[in-house]
Structures are given as C-alpha cells and as structure tokens.
Design brief:
The chain has two helices and six strands. It has helices spanning 15-22, 26-34; strands at 4-7, 10-13, 38-44, 52-59, 62-69, 74-81. A four-stranded antiparallel sheet has the order 3-4-5-6.
Length: 93
C-alpha cells in the first residue's frame, strides 16, 4: 500500500505515516485509533482548492495535517501543537 490511498469516498492512510508523525509504533497507532485516542477530520477543498482534501489527525496535544489530491497523492504534510482533545465515550464527541 502507498502511504495514502483513495477508496471511493474515503482515504486510507498507512499507520506507518501516522506512527512516524506521532513518534509511535504502527501497532500503537491502530490501538489508539480503535480506542478513540487518535481522531481525524477530512475536509474537501472548495474554490481554488477544489480537488484537494485536508486530512487532519489529532493525537494528544499534536496534530498531523495531510493535503492530498483526488487520487490520494500526498501533496504536503505538517505537524503542529493543538489543545489536547478528549473524546466523550458516551456521545462519541
């Protein structure tokens, strides 16, 4: 698998890419995603960004932002600090 693949309306991101960004092992990434400790947000570009997507992963107080095109081609990435997000298990938010 390439690091980012398109599957219909979804993008599949390789756990190794997230592991590298968050200084985790791929198994830790998978576990934290299942447990809701790594969350994501995918936003479709509009206007001049049409045909691009911004995929942001949140893990603790860090975020990884990936910019991809309609084929899943990895155009850019950045990491940055964020306020730690917590997930309410009851509501999923």
């Amino acid at each position: 698998m390439s690091k980012i693949e398109r599957n219909g309306d979804e993008f599949i991101v390789d756990a190794n890419l997230l592991a590298s960004a968050f200084d985790l092992t791929p198994d830790d990434v998978r576990t934290r995603i299942r447990n809701g400790h790594i969350t994501s947000l995918c936003e479709a570009g509009q206007d001049e960004d049409e045909g691009r997507w911004r995929i942001t992963f949140y893990a603790g107080a860090r975020a990884l932002r990936l910019i991809v095109d309609r084929d899943g081609t990895h155009l850019s990435q950045s990491t940055f600090p964020v306020r730690a997000r917590t997930r309410d298990i009851a509501t999923g938010r």
